[in-house]
Amino acid sequence: MRHGDCLDLSLALVCLESAGPEHFAIWVIKAPFPGGYVHYDGKWSVELTQCWVAWQQMFASHPQPHLPVLHEPFNIKDAFQLSNADETVPQSYSGRLMQELGVQLWRWLLQGPVRNTFAQSWGMAQGQRGILRLRFDIRDPNLIPLPWEVMQPAPGKPAIALNQNILFSRTTSDVDPLSLVPTQDQLRILLVLGQSSHPQTGDLEPLNLQQEAELLAQVINPTVKETSHGDNRSSDRVAIEINTLIQPTPVQLIRTLESGRYNIFFYAGHGMPGPDGGLLFLHPQATLNGTELAQVLVRTQVTLALFNACWGAYPEQQEQTAIARSSLAEVLIHHGVPAVVGMRDAIADQEALTFIQHFTTALSKRLTVDHAMAVARQQLLTLYKFNQPAWTLPILYMHPDFDGELVNPIPDGITELPTILPEGGKRQVMPLAMVRSVVERDRIWSIQGGLMRVGRRPDNDLVIQERWVSQNHSEIFYRDTATQATETNYFLRDFSRFGTFIAIPNQDWMLVHHHEVRLIPGTKLKFGSIQGQELEFWIGD
């Protein structure tokens, strides 16, 4: 899959307090087609609350706040009914409960015109042989603890977080702008081990942290390669470099992040929820809260923050009510970190190691972050079964402007156009052409083979990492035609979101959007925005 072959669909959910605690607005905040921006007012049902309470009794390590629609006490065994179960297939109660909650959440969230937008978006992605990227902004903090990742359209259908053709993540629209984070050709991981138990227990060192660090490093980057099993694709993988800090002070952590170009920050240790993103217990005498961590991660351009702790995606509670935007994952995304993975609940050590191994392996194969999450979840499900909560525990939050790219995709190479013979059969010599920076005159990009592809994706011939530049923005190409000697045969074709600005010598800037225009020597170019870097097209040495 090419990273650019994704259609984006984003949904938001908020409580309509003026109508009552059981009324919620569900609307589309981003759609791949103009008519897709719809909304629907849904009413939360007592049956859905009962199903959620039953799910907690079966799977949760500690009780969550109850949802607002529970008008009277009930006996869970009498009230909870498993609907649409296929009685011909033997199934455990836990498996049926997992499936029932997933079906009910899907039917409640995707209803009315929102369901139609989802269906049309999914149909467009399938028609283009691409992928639908679905992001979910949960603006009622009391609904964050629900395992929305288990949503499935019908019994027997895959859950949304397991589907590699629908990449699911949570998000928040209350964010700082996404800083430009350049992709790299390797995984550079800062592995931080903090305190492995809560300071209040009095047992600060139940494990050998150095031994634990070595185990984690071995899990992330195993010495045994898959090529020993006949897999010849290891050349497509990127290298993994790991630097370890054991119980650092905040100063040591910050200096290490600032001195290295890390794209993954990985924390394993203890912490606790809090209104400002919770606390990381780095050192017996030092803690760091989520807001403080966010500042250094954004400044040092870390792309992905991964937390092997049971509270990373869990909001702080106050009088059995969740505090909005208080989970560590939400705080980091709010400040501009592109992607965060945290745990929704407590996770067993072996389950965590399995997830980390398969997640980082998928990233090393150049998959996007949300694609790698789906792969790792599938491995958890295979090993620990659908009717166990392991595969539902890792939660991915992605910034609404982040495209999921952590490392460079595999280059496709440069497409060279054949020399075209015009009428009469006389071969024309293709003149040498180039694009160069107006500010830095020594920065020159030659147009090889009569074609230059321009965009943010690293496999373009001219890569421009500016937020207004599309993944595949435009192309400059040579067309051999019978023209006058005073004209050139180089053209610019735009197929971007915001267009390309050009300025022919002695003329003002004009916008080229979804059409092509002939280029002459000295033409100025700005891709995506008039504020973009200024380039110019030239022919000759």
Summarize the structure.
With 541 residues, this protein is an alpha/beta fold. The protein has helices at 46-59, 76-79, 93-109, 112-127, 209-220, 250-259, 290-299, 328-334, 349-364, 369-384; strands spanning 6-15, 23-30, 39-43, 131-138, 166-171, 186-193, 239-246, 264-268, 271-272, 279-283, 286-289, 304-308, 317-318, 321-322, 339-343, 394-398, 433-437, 444-446, 451-455, 462-463, 474-478, 490-494, 500-503, 510-512, 516-518, 524-527, 535-539.
Task: Describe the overall structure.
The protein is an alpha/beta fold and 541 residues long. 23% of the residues lie in helices and 24% in strands. It has helices at residues 46-59, 76-79, 93-109, 112-127, 209-220, 250-259, 290-299, 328-334, 349-364, 369-384, and strands at residues 6-15, 23-30, 39-43, 131-138, 166-171, 186-193, 239-246, 264-268, 271-272, 279-283, 286-289, 304-308, 317-318, 321-322, 339-343, 394-398, 433-437, 444-446, 451-455, 462-463, 474-478, 490-494, 500-503, 510-512, 516-518, 524-527, 535-539. Strands 7-6-8-12-15-16 form a six-stranded mixed beta sheet, with helices on both faces. It has a six-stranded antiparallel beta sheet with strand order 18-17-27-26-23-24, with no helix packed on it. Strand 2 and strand 3 form a beta hairpin. Helix 1 packs antiparallel against helix 3 (93-109). It is globular, with a radius of gyration of 26 Å. The model is unreliable at 70-80, 82-90, 202-206, 223-234 and 412-427 (pLDDT under 50).
